[in-house]
Design a protein that fits this description.
By secondary structure, the chain is an alpha+beta fold. It contains three helices and seven strands. The protein has one domain. The longest helix is centred in the N-terminal third of the chain and has 51 residues.
């Protein structure tokens, strides 16, 4: 007699388990692919910004834009306005992983100047308020009169490949104040203000994207931020670097598993 093949309950459980496992892996692959695609578009945006800054500095004897200090009008002369004649698409100001103008905080937030302490002017040809998710290194700006020897002010400097210009960031500007600046206690911690820690956000799997003064763009590890030449006087061997003696356990817990530099 021929025996009839039949699925037992155990067989069904195994088959269902395999199907669920396959679906979960397909979803994970799709999610990883989307993250990689967004990171690639982000790098492309920054590369385009490199072309914009290169064109501007070529038109201005090698110098970046200048602004004064001590007045609201002076502070309104920030990069999103000054470089507008060189770009048309406001989406170039944000990483696609943080393309959410309704969320103005956290690692995937989009800063919105309408929430600041002064009412910004509308960007020509755009709706107000201005938004984005990249931050400009303030030490790049040609402040007049020069207030510090730490300012880069111009392109074509020695070691330009290590000088950050535009980065994934929680704010429109960023200061590389000091190598002693504390890292954020959690991902998206805004108590750090606009120091380099404002770019220490896990936006691209343990890294951010950054445009450098040689107008190249690449991925930067979060701990690597403390090794970049953020200003002329910045110590790249400070206490948060391997050459400065930092230990993995010195970092906040959420950062300890990231690559050391």
């Amino acid at each position: 007699m021929k025996s009839k093949a039949a699925f037992t309950k155990k067989d069904l459980v195994v088959v269902l388990g395999c199907i669920i496992f396959l679906l979960a892996n397909i979803a994970a692959i799709g999610d990883n692919g989307r993250r990689r695609a967004k990171a690639a578009v982000c790098l492309s945006n920054l590369y385009k910004w490199g072309q914009i800054f290169q064109a501007y500095t070529a038109d201005n004897d090698g110098f970046f834009h200048s602004r004064g200090v001590g007045s609201i009008e002076a502070y309104k002369k920030i990069w999103i306005y000054v470089y507008k004649p060189y770009y048309n698409d406001p989406k170039m100001r944000y990483c696609p992983a943080a393309a959410n103008p309704t969320c103005n905080e956290g690692p995937f937030g989009t800063w919105n100047l309408g929430y600041g302490s002064w009412p910004p002017e509308p960007v020509p040809g755009e709706d107000s308020p201005p938004y984005g998710s990249y931050g400009l290194n303030r030490n790049i700006v040609n402040i007049q009169p020069p207030t510090s020897t730490s300012l880069w002010r111009r392109a074509g400097v020695k070691g330009a490949a290590q000088v950050p210009v535009l980065l994934d960031c929680m704010y429109v500007n960023i200061w590389f104040h000091s190598p002693y600046a504390e890292p954020p206690q959690y991902d998206g911690d805004w108590t750090v203000g606009d120091t380099q820690a404002a770019s220490c956000i896990n936006r691209h799997d343990g890294s951010i994207n950054c445009l450098f003064l040689d107008f190249s763009a690449r991925k930067v590890g979060l701990k690597e931020l403390w090794t970049l030449k953020g200003s002329r006087t910045y110590d790249t061997c400070g206490p948060w670097t391997l050459c400065g003696g930092v230990h993995p356990t010195d970092w906040p817990e959420w950062m300890r598993g990231f690559q050391d530099y």
